[in-house]
Amino acid sequence: MNYVLAIVTGFNVSGAEEVTLKARGSAISRAVDVAEVVRCRFLRGVEIGKIEIGSEEMRIEEMNRTRTVSTMEITLTRSKPKPRAKPKRKRSQKRKEE
Amino acid sequence: MNYVLAIVTGFNVSGAEEVTLKARGSAISRAVDVAEVVRCRFLRGVEIGKIEIGSEEMRIEEMNRTRTVSTMEITLTRSKPKPRAKPKRKRSQKRKEE
Fold this sequence. Notes:
The structure is a homodimer of 98-residue chains. In chain A, 27% of the residues lie in helices and 37% in strands. By secondary structure, the first copy, chain A, is α+β, with helices and mostly antiparallel strands. Chain A has a single domain (2-78), classed as Translation Initiation Factor IF3 (2-Layer Sandwich). Chain A is elongated. The model of chain A has no long low-confidence stretch (mean pLDDT 86). The interface between A and B is medium-sized, with 20 and 20 residues.
């Protein structure tokens, strides 16, 4: 939830046009969760932009060797506001009297 | 490693032009690992194509409710073969004698 808050702050407080999430290893699935929660629940006007995956060497000091880990970058972009559709008139509801 | 083997088989035995990996939840990071292993170690002529993320409702029978899980699709495509660069000559290795 901290990541979600950070992204929402980036868009709404800092006024960013795009925010990039970066994750590696097993945190990748969490990054996807965060992007989806932001897009579907918090910021409706934000869309998934570019998604990139890759891999990088990571040094493990304890074992004195390197390990390859997968990386991911998800760019969230603020979409242009669409022209609003005219609100539909409410139809008078007919109720069946019992 | 079974997933890697399945993709390699898809490209080399079945002759597919593209293979799509689908994963959801915590398996997403593994799908990225698989795509990277295939691309970097097994099939050099394969590139990452389209990557899509999303979410779907999943029914949990035991608890009799639904849960939203993140999903991911990675499309691997066979790239056009590039003209080969000339192989570099091996330099003779100089060793320090102790």
